[in-house]
Amino acid sequence: MLEAYLEATVLGLGNLVHMDDGAGVHAISLLQMDPRVPHGVVLLDGGTQGLGLLHHISSARRLLVVDAVDVAEPPGTVVRFEGAALRGLPGKASIHQLGFADLMVALELLGESPGEVVVLGVQPESTEWGADLTPAVAAAIPKLVDCVVAELEAWRTQ
Amino acid sequence: MARIVVDPVSRIEGHLRIEANLEGGKLNDAWSSGTMFRGIEMILKGRDPREAWIWAQRICGVCTMVHAIASVRAVEDALKIDVPENAKLVRNLIAGAQMVQDHVVHFYHLHALDWVDVAAALKADPAKTSSLAQSISNCEKSSTTYFKGVQARVKAVVDSGQLSLFASGYWGHPAYTLPPEVNLMAVAHYLEALAWQKDFIRIHAVLGGKNPHPQSFLVGGMSTAMDPDEPAAVITPERIIFMRDLVRGALKFVNDYYIPDVLAIAPLYKDWFTRGEGLGNFLAYGDYSLGDQSDPKTFLFPRGIVMGRDISQVFPVDPHKITESVAHSWYEYSDGSAEGRHPAIGETIPKYSGPKAPFDHLDVDAKYSWLKAPRYDGKPMEVGPLARMVVGYASGKKEIKDSIDGVLKALNAPPTVLFSTLGRIAARALESQLMAKQLEGWVNQLDDNLSHGKTAIFNPVRWDPSSWPNSAAGVGWHEAPRGALGHWVEIEGKTIKNYQAVVPTTWNAGPRDSKGQRGAYEAALLGTPVADPNRPLEILRTIHSFDPCIACAVHVIDAQGREYTIPRIS
What we know:
The structure holds two protein chains of two kinds.
Chain A: E1 9-13, H1 23-31, E2 42-47, H2 54-57, E3 62-70, E4 78-82, H3 84-87, H4 100-110, E5 116-122, H5 135-156
Parallel strand pairs in A: 1-2, 1-3, 3-5
Antiparallel strand pairs in A: 4-5
Helix pairs in contact in A: 1-5
Chain B: E1 2-6, E2 16-23, E3 26-34, H1 40-44, H2 52-56, H3 64-79, H4 85-111, H5 118-121, H6 126-136, H7 144-159, H8 180-200, H9 202-207, E4 217-218, E5 221-222, H10 237-265, E6 282-284, E7 287-289, E8 299-301, E9 304-306, E10 322-325, E11 373-376, H11 385-394, H12 398-411, H13 421-451, E12 471-480, E13 483-492, E14 495-502, H14 504-509, H15 520-525, H16 537-545, E15 557-558, E16 568-569
Antiparallel strand pairs in B: 1-2, 2-3, 4-5, 6-9, 7-8, 10-11, 12-13, 13-14
Helix pairs in contact in B: 4-8, 4-10, 4-13, 6-7, 6-8, 7-8, 8-10, 10-13, 11-12, 11-13, 12-13
């Protein structure tokens, strides 16, 4: 198993009591039972914590964020951002004022930015109060999980 | 007369809208509107009360464990469960650590930018900043080279155009009046605070089992085993040492940075010692036992009420006098009334009647908020650090009185300056210091219990639902960083029949009631001068001084309308 060791953190973001907003956290729960996840990978349920997440991801070699991302696509659409595209993801415009983008800037200010960052997102249908995902997003979670596994696999074989 | 709208209020949790009337350069009225519905109560109905805290802690994006504590306390109260001392100590440590971390983050990362101009910091002289820093604090990081380095790091971020954290300030606004060197020192400490809080919160990883969402709460105690014979023992001598280092570091941070920074900045904004006064009614449920964990008389923060800024008298808290009005809130009660209803029989029936988006103004004569209007004995109250410090001061609690008197002496100011925007900021800093001093005491008590083989941390007597009465009701109190928090639970046939949470920000940010009485934010804005209606920095200063948390973070990353193609994965 030694060769399968991978230094990476998968961070699921979202609020479990706001339906599809919790998609990232649901994905983490599935990944925790997924034998395809390489050894060494840290799976983290980040909820909606802002700066409280800093110590988990500071200086991470590779960071994979899984989250609901509103890109005005059909519900359940899975999207991927990396590099320059991440800079376009707003911090201030999101409802959660200290969002993911702010975390990234905070780490930059501390000189502790992750080596590589990829965001895998799923288009939400509803973020109203409720503990369940909508059918469209629930159906997309296995694919989201597969995308996470594929991403980790790509890193492992780099 | 001009109507100013601030929506959303930035650098807070959740969604808040403020409308205010400006006449003759001053605000003569204001309305506070929570623009998101909070429906946790509906999600909890029908669930096992032993797992209520797991859901309740997701109410809020940031201060998760405060709801976990209030929730387990409510269920323990309903089922009459006595919790072992160790569990109370661990809860105090978790909540106390949260309070210090939360206050530091609030001051430096959510509020400082209302007072500190990042753009001006770039113009400061690092050598002068160094002498300034050395004159106010013993902290080691204060050399010219250090401040030069900070300036360069901040400049790099500003130049990259990725302002993010700093983007919501009104840079260049005439109300920023600090000298450049004070700005640079504060920005440097903003970064130090980022780094410190990141390490400190690891205490939750020890005590919470899993941070950021602690998994170690149990109805009846905690799951953080102390018995060395248990293979999964969490609280061990090594971890006691680790925690002792962290809490000493917390006190050092508060003493070296937080308190000196507040004392350096406050006198440069002394107008704000008379602005933002607000209601003058203060409510604290009290919390954090010292010594005997079951005796409220030992609370670090006493329970009580102060009315009309009269600190010569402290009234007892009668929980039956708490009600919530929905006269101006987008809810209805099943009996058709909008009058105050006690949370034990509270209802959460949403009924939106506001304008359809997009709109210019809310109809503030009708319903205008998703927050209810909590009242005590029919009166609006302020909760939070200032309420705790005022109640503690008026109660004659020695630690609190000494702390406040010390600062008043340093500022050469009378106690009345507490009732202000800066008073709230100072109260939060002093409270952080009191709490940081106390944390080590709790660690030592745990250590002592551990070394004497006193390791009980969970009382299983009511774990089995067959031991429960058919119906039961209880309430859980907690002093969260933002103020008085109560959870009310009603259990019937082993599941939750009704659940209500009255959270600190509902007390402070709630709308008017059926008598038209203003909430705490609304009252605090009256009379505030606003220099530029298009950049109402002054409104943010007072609203942020309460540390708003609209307690319902939804945080979908919103990439709509951005200028790039959507990288779909098919």
